[in-house]
Design brief:
- Its cofactor is Zn(2+).
- There is one protein chain.
- The protein is α+β, with helices and mostly antiparallel strands.
- The protein is about 40% helix and about 20% strand.
- The strands form four sheets. Strands 7-8-9-13-12-11-10 form a seven-stranded antiparallel β-sheet, with helices on both faces. Strands 4-5-6-14 form a four-stranded antiparallel β-sheet, covered by helices on one side. A three-stranded mixed β-sheet has the order 1-3-2.
- It starts with a helix and ends in a 5-residue tail after the last strand.
């Protein structure tokens, strides 16, 4: 009966929604490209058992679709923030940050059901909005614009375009309305999607100490409104009787034990204004007040006034002898493409590393903008930095390159990571007591929000509690 009700709901929407839409082959082609960008630019969690579990749950939910349009693939994206998104053609992702907040397989199924409906309803194709990570920068000048859209984007990696970040209010409501009964048709508690939405909202507010901006599910209808609507609808739905993929709560929680929940040191860490990369073995310091963003390909920084920017990344293997050829080829490109000849400087950074730099000033805008290109060698690897700045920020951009140096042994030893430990509470135990027994390292308010309990909770015994524990970083072999 549940599946018949769901099929009727779907067919009523399908008849009116697909007029004038391109073939679903468009979704598949876009999805393949976007999925490759997700893997390259965001990265996927290298945990075959966890990925297989998420995929198994997703396949069960997708199998409940009455008229399925796509083959689905589910993966865990290497993202700290709690998030889930879909790209066209059937590629669906949950972040490890979201997994850390889950209390049950039912909640995971509710999330995946919502995202499956975004794909089935082809919301991304309808609402596609191209975005650029560096789009906030509004420096004037023809040459600057070309560098931002070409060389800087190439170094930083162009962000994938097909992620559902711009769904309309009605599209979100539609994914809720169809995703919830889909999860129920697959055998999952329809109330679970409301529970994880509410917990996620509370967790983010606790972490930021303020109301969050829309992120997860791009909550155009406010989260309290959505939770209330989903809860009302859940009362009208009866899940199909079917065993879960994880046999019980203990089996589900065991899958989360050991999950990395903080920033991944393997990709580098930002602390205050200092960036350290243990795998590549260097540290870099950015100017005070600059916003620093670490990606898989580069570490980027922007001045608080948004009129200065720097991107630093690995260009490849090489030696100091390669630097003049690289700089010459780039200089010739600038001359050919923009009819501008840069000043070329040979030498070393303040830390003594072999370097080659090009300077150029774009005077075509309202004020001069200085462009700074640098290549340097450290440990047989060539790094590149591109900086853009007006006169007021010019020295600060250069100071970033001069701050580069190898990590010391003590700095390496001080690097740590946060991993989730799951353990059973004892009778009469409090949340701080469980955290202390586990060696926990986060505030009680954050721990309570993560577990969906109050700070003053007193456990009856046997409840599963997730505790973030800080441990020394061990590089993958």
């Amino acid at each position: 009966m549940q599946k018949k009700l769901f099929a009727a709901m779907c067919s009523a929407v399908v008849v009116t929604a697909c007029v004038g839409m391109p073939s679903t082959e468009v979704d598949r082609q876009m999805g393949q490209q976007a999925a490759q960008s997700v893997a390259n630019d965001m990265g996927l969690v290298d945990d075959p058992a966890l990925t297989a579990y998420v995929d198994s749950v997703g396949q069960r939910v997708a199998a409940a679709l009455p008229n399925r349009q796509f083959n689905y693939r589910f993966a865990v994206v290497d993202q700290v923030e709690p998030n889930a998104f879909a790209v066209p053609g059937g590629y669906i992702y949950v972040s490890r940050g979201l997994l850390s907040l889950l209390r049950s397989e039912d909640e995971l199924a509710g999330v995946l059901g919502h995202e499956i409906q975004h794909v089935e309803r082809r919301h991304s194709v309808r609402q596609m909005k191209k975005e650029r990570r560096l789009g906030l920068l509004a420096l004037p000048g023809e040459l600057v614009g070309g560098i931002i859209s070409d060389d800087l984007a190439t170094l930083a990696g162009k962000p994938f375009e097909a992620v559902a970040a711009g769904y309309s209010r009605d599209q979100e409501r539609e994914a809720d309305a169809l995703g919830q009964p889909l999860a129920a048709a697959a055998g999952y508690d329809p109330q679970a999607i409301a529970s994880i939405l509410d917990r996620m909202e509370h967790f983010i507010e606790t972490m930021t100490e303020e109301k969050r901006a829309p992120t997860f599910f791009d909550s155009h209808p406010s989260t309290p409104e959505r939770v209330a609507t989903l809860s009302r609808n859940a009362a009208k739905l009866t899940p199909t009787a079917a065993p879960h993929v994880a046999a019980d709560e203990a089996a589900f929680m065991k899958k989360l034990d050991g999950l990395l929940i903080g920033p991944d040191p393997t990709e580098g860490l930002v602390h205050d204004q200092t960036f350290v990369h243990p795998a590549l073995g260097f540290r870099l310091v950015f100017p005070k007040g600059w916003l620093v963003e670490n990606t898989r390909k580069t570490v980027n920084a922007m001045a608080p006034t948004k009129d200065g920017i720097a991107a630093f990344g690995l260009a490849g293997d090489g030696t100091a002898e390669d630097l003049p050829k690289i700089a010459k080829a780039f200089s010739e490109k600038l001359a050919r493409k923009y009819r501008s000849t840069p000043q070329q400087i040979e030498g070393k950074t303040a830390g003594g590393l072999p370097a080659q730099a090009l300077y150029l000033t774009d005077k075509s805008g309202k004020e001069p903008v200085h462009l700074y290109f640098l290549w340097l060698v450290m440990d047989h690897k060539i790094y590149q930095m591109i900086g853009l700045a007006p006169d007021s920020q010019r020295a600060l951009v250069r100071s970033i390159a001069d701050s580069l140096r190898p990590l010391s042994d003590n700095e390496r030893a001080s690097i740590s990571e946060l991993r989730l430990r799951v353990l059973g509470a004892r009778s009469g135990e409090t949340l701080p007591a469980v955290s202390k027994r586990a060696g926990g390292s986060v505030a009680a308010a954050v721990l309570a929000a993560m577990n969906g309990v109050t700070e003053s909770v007193q456990f009856k015994g046997g409840e599963w509690v997730k505790v973030p524990v800080r441990t020394a970083y061990r590089a993958p072999r």
